[in-house]
Structure prediction request, 770 residues.
Amino acid sequence: MLASLETPVPLVDLDRLEANLGRMASHADTLGLALRPHVKTHKTPWIAGEQLGRGAVGVTCATTAEAEVMAEVTGDILFAHPPVHPGKLARLLALPEVVSPMVGLDSEEAVRLLAAGARERGREVGVLVELDLGMRRVGAQNPQDAVRLARRIEGESHLRYAGVMFYPGHIKGPVSEQGPALERLRNDLGGVLHALDREGLPAGIVSGGSTPTAGRTGEVEGMTEMRPGTYVYNDRITVATGSCSRDDCALTVLATVVSTAVPGQAVVDAGTKALGREPFGDLAGFGELLDRPEVVVRAMSEEHGMLDLSETAWRPEVGEQVRIIPNHVCIVVHLNDLCVGVRGDRVERSWEVAARGRKFEVWGRMAFAQAGMSTGASSRVKRGI
Amino acid sequence: MLASLETPVPLVDLDRLEANLGRMASHADTLGLALRPHVKTHKTPWIAGEQLGRGAVGVTCATTAEAEVMAEVTGDILFAHPPVHPGKLARLLALPEVVSPMVGLDSEEAVRLLAAGARERGREVGVLVELDLGMRRVGAQNPQDAVRLARRIEGESHLRYAGVMFYPGHIKGPVSEQGPALERLRNDLGGVLHALDREGLPAGIVSGGSTPTAGRTGEVEGMTEMRPGTYVYNDRITVATGSCSRDDCALTVLATVVSTAVPGQAVVDAGTKALGREPFGDLAGFGELLDRPEVVVRAMSEEHGMLDLSETAWRPEVGEQVRIIPNHVCIVVHLNDLCVGVRGDRVERSWEVAARGRKFEVWGRMAFAQAGMSTGASSRVKRGI
Prediction:
């Protein structure tokens, strides 16, 4: 059955997917937290629908294509990336009217641009002040900056100050070792929330949480919601951090052995363009076989993956198929266009990765018109979905 | 002008692209070698057309989508990946009749499958025996294996033994230091060609060469053609190996600064999903700014790139745009859907990365039909182009 699917292709074990969806929904419920999953992992409206059906309050997006596609299934969309580009801002503000967009940002310039756009469109936008609680990526650096931004947002006619958000992406060690980092985060968050309260700017929403920290999110006081993404599929990294078991990995890449000519290895047709190059800590290689954890993808070219046979007596034949658990599943989904859902060896459904798109229309067309492009060339610039 | 393009987006400097195309065409001409460029770098029929217009004899492909798309512009297609999967084989053999497909392979099983498919379709397929000349990825390991495969191919009614191919992807150090590795390769190749001659199986085509080795390909006796790919755009890696100058890098990723909150860095909206994570040797980071080589992309999340400001006095504003030269341009093209061609700051054209596709139809549809899928789900499985 699986042998007839052209490789490489991502396979999703639907039983595992459903179990993962249910487990995180229950966990959020137990903690009394709202669940607003990040769709970057699956980029697929029907899976977002399954998340919403299990109680998710809305979704989190990082690209305009994700937001546009997810508007099919929910009106509650958090855009967790400062939309400071006029093209992105225009696309966000053009989302269907049933959508109540919310944005996370960390600069006065982002507030200014968003306020101007929202005013011009006559549209209200919720805003979360993004906080840096140790990741050192984006986010207000201290309580004073957070207060200043919140006040600035509250002063804008079409912006609604809705609270704060943070991403604990720096905490990705084993769950049992997250204590000290979580304590620092809890203290920093407490300081910001206290300052906001004192200034009459209490945070309605306090949004945080990732898949690796989901198990200990209950220890962070003041949070109202969590935004894990990877949990729907899981991968070698979430297993390595102890946030799930190996049997919770729902997505594998089906690949075909194309060469066994070089002794000690077998070459499959999944390389960096299907699996992604995502090394992690002391994890060996870039993926491992579902059936044979001792066999890892040692090296890759763009369309070749080199399976290391040094730890196994298994010697595959040319034409044999394997299923690879990738290191980082979010990249795998973005690299591919199609996923196939299976139960056991039975193919049950397939779907396009509808929100992987990296095209744009509105601003592209304007640019091309200015440059005097031919209609033919311009018409090739399609919508990013 | 560029400011109106939604970021992140790959920009191609058309003057540089044209110069790169011309330079390699002249180089192959000077060496008296046929040029059969690998399209994996651009995945775009119009650029393949430009290569053919400058004298390329055909193209090299690694995926079925690439082969199908390139059939629009040439009938001479080398599929440089053993098509041992029945789905891939079926797609290759279904290419338009004007196409004379040629395949590289390294196993008896691959010959058997290809011969059976070609016979069934009544179609002749040229075959190159792939040799391992030091890369240790795929390829016949010694002259005896090469002779055995060549003889096997010659004995098949619908296969045409056309010669040998190799990929010197293990030689990627500085051009000036390639001598010893090239000498070993030359000796190994000589041994294989001698054995084939002696057995009455002379190689008509001897195909090799990559962008990093292009400058010294003339030193390898017996070659008849070269298959560089990256040279159309170049990148930080081809600059680092000395195979081009920095001014030959034709593709940059246009990105917008979205946050400067964390001191010492600026965050842009191009992360691993637009730039790719392709570390190389002692090259710092994952990309560098076109205008400021001292500023590198130090770290990435999926949609965030962290610019390291430690070596510059420049302090960008939120909203400012930058152009990033990526480490490995072939991955960037595959991650995106759209490229924009510019001359200076003027947008001249845009095109879809038409052959990036990772969808499939024939075998997918069959699989779904067997599983009793609904028409709605099945109709979502579109052609991989």
Remarks:
- Confidence is low (pLDDT under 50) at residues 362-385 of chain A.
